[in-house]
Design goal:
This is Transposase. It comes from Deinococcus marmoris. This protein folds into two domains: 193 residues, no CATH class; 188 residues, no CATH class. 44% of the residues lie in helices and 20% in strands. The chain contains eleven helices and 16 strands. Strands 1, 2, 6, 7 and 8 form a five-stranded antiparallel beta sheet that branches. A five-stranded mixed beta sheet has the order 11-10-9-12-13, sandwiched between helices. Strands 3-4-5 form a three-stranded antiparallel beta sheet. Helix 2 packs across helix 3 and helix 7 packs parallel to helix 10. The relative contact order is 0.11. The chain binds zinc ion. The site of zinc ion has 9 residues, from loops.
Length: 417
């Protein structure tokens, strides 16, 4: 079976869409509770009893009216998840909070996705997808809109020829798809020279806990068709950051990929001047298009260069991101990770390297930043701004990111030995 990777990003539903998504979520929770109750009654004390069959749940679903709010992909997935849980142990009474569930979804343009059960596309930063995934989505879209064009042309010909059924169908077709016309005509997406992916039809929605309550996120699955072989040798260690997107260390020494937007980016992002927007306008989409412009112009080239450099090595050591830690100490960095697509890039590199390279993910708790890279005494570094001095051996003028990259290189070598 070919390998797959998942890519997750934020969703920005408007208030009405959000309440519909929340309703779907409530329904999924209600279905789970009902399944859990039935399971408990059917198998008291036996947690590995034969699980509920899909057909039985479908019957239940029709009777209970679940299908009104839940698309069949979600319902089937809910049952599959439930059965997996029931097979290995006691079933929790409630659906786990951040459990991802299948949803029918279409990446209709770079700024929005259509989701099952919602009438209008939901704003989503699909332009942040790494290049091979962006290209796979563009290929999918090309096929999809190609089929739509074909259908529409057939209907147009029949309508012009006086076919009244086709005439009515053409009206529906135009009304359904016309609003996406402008958005879907995106700039051409280049082919990634290293990776070839294909979008799979198994998208999931996950509610991630956040400071402002649970936020919906979309997870796309891609089949990995091809990964280029590494062209260099040895290990590369990579320290992700805001000031420098990546600081890397290999046998060739240190390499920096500086953030070209440094000093230009402030959270929260500036909004349109107050009083300049009418209610019917779409500030959400406008914000995404502006973000796409800045990310595309400033960050894409550096991200692509860093990605190619990292994937050129057969061994990779990378620091894991401690998101909970950032939310306590550096909320700016957390906002940056989502806005810039850096979180997506980071996870993408780990997923691909895990398939094709020797990979060590060094936990943030390993202390790569505070350990002195000269004498290796933990928590010995004292920083003022970017520069550090070691309290143990006295080494001075150590750059914060370089010091971390040196430590990651050493930890990576030890982990992969
Ligand atoms: Zn030291």
């Amino acid at each position: 079976m070919p390998e797959t990777i998942n890519i997750e990003h934020e969703l920005y539903p408007d208030a009405a869409q959000r309440s519909q998504l929340e309703q779907q979520r409530q329904m999924a929770c209600a279905v789970w509770r009902s399944l859990a109750e039935q399971h408990a009654r059917a198998a008291p004390g036996h947690h590995n009893e034969p699980a509920l069959s899909r057909a039985r749940v479908r019957t239940l679903a029709r009777r209970a009216g679940w299908t009104r709010d839940l698309c069949s992909a979600t319902l089937d997935d809910l049952v599959a998840v439930f059965n997996r849980v029931a097979r290995v142990g006691p079933v929790p009474a409630e659906l786990p909070e951040d459990q991802a569930l299948r949803i029918s979804a279409r990446p209709v343009c770079d700024f929005a996705a259509e989701l099952g059960g919602l009438e209008t596309p939901v704003a989503a930063p699909l332009f942040l997808l790494p290049s091979a995934a962006h290209r796979a989505v563009a290929d999918w879209r090309g096929d999809f809109f190609g089929r739509l064009d074909l259908q529409q042309n057939t209907l147009k010909q029949a309508a012009v020829a006086g076919n009244s059924t086709a005439d009515a169908q053409l009206l529906t077709h135009l009304a359904r798809w016309i609003s996406l016309d402008g958005l879907a005509r995106a700039a051409p997406v280049p082919v990634c020279p290293l990776i070839k992916l294909t979008l799979q039809e198994s998208t999931r929605l996950r509610w991630a806990p956040g400071p402002a309550g649970p936020q919906p996120r979309l997870i796309w699955t891609f089949r990995v068709d091809d990964i280029a072989a590494p062209r260099l040798t040895g290990l590369v260690a990579a320290d992700p950051g805001l000031r420098r997107l990546w600081t890397t260390r290999s046998r060739r020494g240190l390499t920096h990929f500086d953030n070209p937007m440094l000093g230009q980016w402030r959270p929260p992002l500036p909004a349109a001047p107050p009083g300049t927007l009418r209610r019917s306008w779409q500030p959400g989409l406008a914000k995404l298009q502006r973000q796409a412009l800045l990310v595309g112009h400033h960050l894409r080239p550096v991200q692509a260069e860093a990605f190619q450099y990292l994937m050129a090595h057969p061994e990779l050591a990378v620091e894991g991101l401690d998101l909970a830690g950032f939310s306590r100490t550096g909320p700016d960095y957390l906002a940056w990770l989502d806005w810039s697509g850096a979180l997506i890039q980071h996870r993408y590199i780990i997923a691909l390297a895990g398939l094709s390279r020797r990979l060590a993910v060094i936990p943030a708790q390993a202390g790569a930043t505070r350990t002195c890279s000269v004498c290796q005494v933990p928590r010995a570094m004292h920083f003022e701004g970017r520069q550090g001095r070691c309290r143990a051996c006295g080494a001075g003028n150590l750059d914060r990111d370089d010091n971390a990259a040196e430590n990651l290189y050493r930890l990576g070598q030890a982990a992969l030995r």
